[in-house]
Each structure stands twice: as C-alpha cells, then as structure tokens.
Amino acid sequence: MEPQFYHGYSVWGHAILQQDGILEPERYAASGTITLSGKMVESSGILDYFDSEEEARHAGLEWARAWIDSHR
After folding, report:
1. Phi and psi angles of residue 64, each rounded to the nearest 5 degrees, phi first
2. How far apart are CA 33 and CA 46, in angstroms?
3. What pLDDT, on a 0 to 100 scale, did the predictor assign at position 24?
4. What DSSP state is assigned to residue 61?
5. Vertex 69, ends 68 and 72: CA angle to 5°?
6. CB 65 within 8 A of CB 34
7. What are the pLDDT digits (tens) for 8-36?
8. What is the pLDDT of residues 46-55, one digit of tens each?
9. What residues contact residue 62 under an 8 Å CB cut-off, 6+ apart?
10. 45: nearest Cα among 16, 18, 5
11. Stretch 46-68: mean pLDDT, rounded?
12. Of the candidates 37, 23, 32, 38, the residue with the CA atom closest to the CA atom of residue 65
C-alpha cells in the first residue's frame, strides 16, 4: 500500500478485515494515518465498517485529509 500526499503530509487509508465467523460476510474496518517526514502525526482508530476494502481505504483517506484541513 502506497501513501497519498496531501499538503506535504503522507496520508494512509487502511482496510482491516473483520470476520467474526466463517459464515459471516467479510467486512472491513476503516482507519487513517497521517505522517510527516516519516513521523506519525495522527491516527484515527476505527472510523466505520464497510463491505469492501476500497470503501474502507477511501474513508481512511478522507478522514486524514479532513484532519489536515482542520489543523492548518
């Protein structure tokens, strides 16, 4: 997974597989991480749950961009 860059920060969207049982459909927990010059700036924790990895990663990236916008 590669970071995206936003206003000088590296932003990451994470999709964490959540599967309670074998017969349960796969769900993905979303989270985001922000780094600057290789150092952790902020991490979101679990934001929400999604049916696809792509949706979860997108939510993490959106959270990271919004956090940067609100702290500039």
Report:
1. -60, -45
2. 11
3. 77
4. H
5. 80
6. no
7. 999 999 999 998 777 778 899 999 999 99
8. 999 999 999 9
9. 13, 32
10. 16
11. 97
12. 32
pLDDT of residue 1: 73
Q: Determine the residue type at 70.
A: S
Q: What is the pLDDT of residue 46?
A: 98
Q: Tokens 């949706």 — which residue?
A: 55
Closest by Cα among 62, 46, 42 to 54: 62
Which token pair is 40?
A: 């952790």
Pair 36, 68: CB distance under 8 Å = no
Which spans in the chain are helix H? 53-70
